[in-house]
Design brief:
Elements (H helix, E strand, L loop, with lengths): L4 E7 L13 H7 L2 H7 L3 E7 L18 H18 L4 E7 L4 H15 L3 E7 L20 H5 L21 E6 L4 H7 L5 E4 H7 L2 H13 L2 E8 L21 H14 L2 E7 L10 H13 L13
Parallel strand pairs: 1-2, 1-3, 3-8, 4-5, 4-7, 5-6, 7-8
């Protein structure tokens, strides 16, 4: 990873829910020093600014709860175009959101790029939720609960949003930290090959064994790993700046251990950070933690960690 330029891409989208604030996420991470941290680790960093999407036409669904579907379609289209035209072999993109809708535009585009390089695209989905709702069964209409459904090419989006550029194989998705799943999601996800490790499993067996098994599977397939980090993956006691808090998440050391193991694998080729809502933060606490986790993902060791003043 050291020969790549870190490409920061801000995606200030917050139409995926009815709670505003995630659009401030990219600037919060910039303010918390994400570029400076990566440069201290020896990387060349290019900040491409923010991608802002405007819908071209209204899109309506028979489920009256669904909202901002037009914005979702525009976001997916713009992210796909960006990945196709602006990312090359020398870029390691870090997408900073924005709510988790951004993953629906990022991952199919990256999968297409990986295919061109002869690599299989894998996804490590770090989240309290599976985000496996459909347009028909979402009772809130919040589209940040649907990106995994979209990225695997589910037919429920047909006629509303163009099919993904390259669908992600369900068996190439590993979810960790899950602890809030709707009944409909539970039933549907059981029919896929998605590898799900909820907090019960992590409490029983630890975070390292399932992660190492996933990494071994990626290596055998000559795969590339995209890490999709939803802030609610973390316990809200250490990361309060999220609108969908679920108690009992991954703690500080578990999160850093995971990032360190991923760095050691050498397989991470891209990252997105979603659902950071600075409006809900406490003195920038969550933003600083996320920057520290990104540092661990890209080579910072525990012994290198600097003490911060409070």
């Amino acid at each position: 990873m050291s020969n790549k330029t870190m490409l920061l891409v801000g995606v200030p989208a917050d139409q995926g829910s009815r709670r505003r604030g995630c659009l401030m996420g990219p600037d919060a991470l910039r303010t918390a020093g994400i570029s400076d941290m990566l440069e201290r680790l020896g990387y060349e960093v290019t900040d491409s600014g923010n991608i802002v999407s405007e819908p071209s036409a209204d899109i309506h669904h028979s489920n009256p709860q669904v909202h901002h579907l037009s914005d979702y379609a525009a976001l997916i289209s713009n992210l796909d175009e960006f990945c196709q035209t602006e990312i090359n072999d020398w870029h390691l993109p870090i997408f900073i959101g924005g709510d988790h809708c951004i993953a629906a535009g990022i991952l199919p585009a990256l999968a297409r790029n990986s295919e061109k390089e002869g690599r299989e695209q894998f996804v490590l989905w770090l989240d309290a939720h599976t985000d496996f709702q459909t347009l028909e069964n979402t009772d809130t209409g919040n589209l940040h609960g649907t990106p995994v459904t979209y990225m695997i090419g589910d037919a429920s989006f047909d006629g509303f949003i163009p099919a993904p550029a390259k669908a992600i194989k369900p068996e190439n998705i590993c979810m960790m930290g899950i602890r809030s799943v709707d009944p409909a999601e539970r039933e549907r996800i059981a029919c896929t090959g998605i590898d799900v490790h909820d907090m019960r499993a992590i409490d029983e067996f630890g975070i390292a064994p399932p992660l190492r098994r996933f990494i071994d599977r990626v290596r055998r397939a000559n795969g590339a790993v995209h890490v999709s980090l939803d802030i609610d993956f973390l316990d809200p006691e250490i990361a309060p700046a999220v609108g969908t808090t679920v108690a009992g998440g991954v703690n500080f050391r578990e999160a850093h251990l995971m990032m360190e193991i991923l760095y050691d694998s050498g397989l991470v080729t891209s990252l997105d950070i979603a659902e950071l809502n600075p409006f809900l933060d406490v003195r920038g606490r969550t933003s600083k933690l996320v920057v520290d986790l990104v540092a661990s993902l890209f080579g910072q060791r525990v012994l290198d960690t600097q003490t911060r003043s409070i």
